[in-house]
Design brief:
Elements (H helix, E strand, L loop, with lengths): L1 H33 L17 H7 L2 H34 L11 H13 L2 H11 L7 H8 L14 H26 L3 H9 L4 H12 L1 H17 L2 H6 L13 H10 L4 H25 L8
Helix pairs in contact: 2-13, 3-7, 3-10, 4-7, 7-10, 10-13, 12-13
Length: 300
């Protein structure tokens, strides 16, 4: 009986595992190999050069600038997005007058918050190009000028450009996590909130002593997803910012440098080396986050 079950399971798993090896693991292996060559395109014969591309990366100031930008986004994007999403989710689900029920119209607000997720990333980038227009007729600068101030170069000022990109990323992501955390909060029995409220717990205590511990697994998953998104951010930077990562490389990220070196300079081997570094950054972040945020599971 056990042998027949094993054959049945193996028969179902063989094709998916084979497809995973061909379309996922095989490209990774090819990328690692290309990273150790000087390949410059489909018509060129790659020459094996060992670790030269990685040695070159050590002295590439633009790449390490991109790494620093990714690290800033890696810290702030999950922190801001999850913080804002938790705040709004708590208001929608436990912010009613009774202290244990959601506010009136909470379903409508969830749809409203989720709306940016419907838009393609490239469309969001183009929209915010207009919002951040440095001229006085830009959406934000028209308000600035109306207040009697000079127009602000949100995307043309190297000191502000990366923070403007971060604002767009948070704006786009927060709606999804509002819905995700709202679903998690809705699964918490109302009796738990009611019992805590009867014992005299205020909204702050309800959030930190009840909601946050019971929602921890969902927050952990959200943190990992947002961290990976921060490392992989490309479209917003490439479409929205000057010089596809400017000005003066002030918004460039690793993914943008990979694309630039591969398809602008045709240095596919060097770009693959950057991709390998990005791969280990991503895997390392995910493993470290899951390890550090692991805690005893609370059943309810």
């Amino acid at each position: 009986m056990k042998y027949g079950r094993a054959r049945f399971i193996t028969g179902f798993l063989t094709l998916p595992v084979l497809l995973y090896v061909v379309y996922v693991l095989s490209p990774y292996a090819q990328a690692f190999y290309i990273a150790m060559t000087d390949w410059r395109g489909v018509n060129a014969t790659p020459r094996f050069i060992g670790l030269e591309n990685f040695q070159r990366l050590m002295g590439d100031g633009v790449f390490w600038k991109a790494v620093s930008h990714n690290l800033i986004l890696l810290i702030l994007l999950p922190l801001l997005t999850i913080g804002i999403a938790l705040f709004f989710s708590f208001l929608l689900n436990v912010g009613g007058r009774s202290g244990v029920k959601g506010i009136w119209g909470s379903k409508f607000y969830r749809v409203l918050f989720f709306f940016p997720q419907v838009l393609a990333v490239a469309i969001v980038a183009v929209l915010f190009q207009q919002v951040f227009q440095p001229r006085s007729n830009g959406m934000l600068n028209s308000i600035v000028v109306a207040l009697g101030l000079e127009p602000i170069g949100f995307l043309s000022n190297p000191d502000l450009a990366l923070w403007s990109v971060l604002g767009v990323l948070v704006w786009q992501a927060v709606g999804f996590y509002v819905v995700l955390f709202s679903a998690g909060m809705a699964s918490i029995p109302r009796d738990v909130f009611e019992a805590a409220a009867i014992d005299g717990a205020g909204r702050v205590q309800l959030f930190f002593r009840i909601t946050l511990p019971l929602l921890w697994d969902t927050i952990q998953v959200g943190w990992v997803y947002l961290g990976i998104a921060a490392l992989d951010v490309f479209a917003v930077v490439w479409v929205m910012t000057a010089e596809h990562g400017g000005p003066d490389s002030s918004t460039t990220v690793m993914a943008a440098e990979i694309y630039r070196n591969a398809f602008h300079y045709f240095q596919f081997g060097y770009a693959s080396a950057m991709g390998v570094v990005l791969f280990f950054f991503t895997v390392g972040f995910a493993a470290l986050s899951l390890r550090l945020s692991r805690r005893e599971r609370i059943e309810f």
